[in-house]
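TL;DR need structure tokens for one chain.
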Amino acid sequence: MKLKALTLIAALACGSLYAQTVEVKDAWVRTTVQGQKATGAFMKITARDGAKLVAVTSPIAGVAEVHEMKMEGNVMKMRAVQGGLDLPAGKTVELKSGGYHVMLMDLKTPLAKDSTVPLTLVFKDAKGVESQVALTVPVVMVAPGAKPTDMPAMDHGKMPMNHGMQKP
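>> reply
TL;DR here they are.
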């Protein structure tokens, strides 16, 4: 019986040791409005020994993926990161609007300001060992510390859009 207890304690200690090698800071999720089915989660991740962020899950979303948004010429492209997001040893990787971020899609409910969202991040180290970090992330309108005026303005009048309306 003592051996089983010691084995369990050792297994738990190893899991928490690995979790401590990945630090997640300043995590937040953007609010949504009624009917909106997707939003983004943002954070700073530092892996002491290097790792990959290979998956994300949340009970509030049917689909959660790590995405990259980038401009190619004048076209904004967003796609899921295949094979995981590299986290170089000791370097902070920022998941932010306009770059790498977590997409929460097929939302089951609107996300109101001052609520929280549970997220589980799955990491894989260089040896292929997986570990998870569970977070409870605040839902806010803009990044913590930012002001609404810090958000870049978008001139929708200059964007080519067709909303299915015909000109008279």
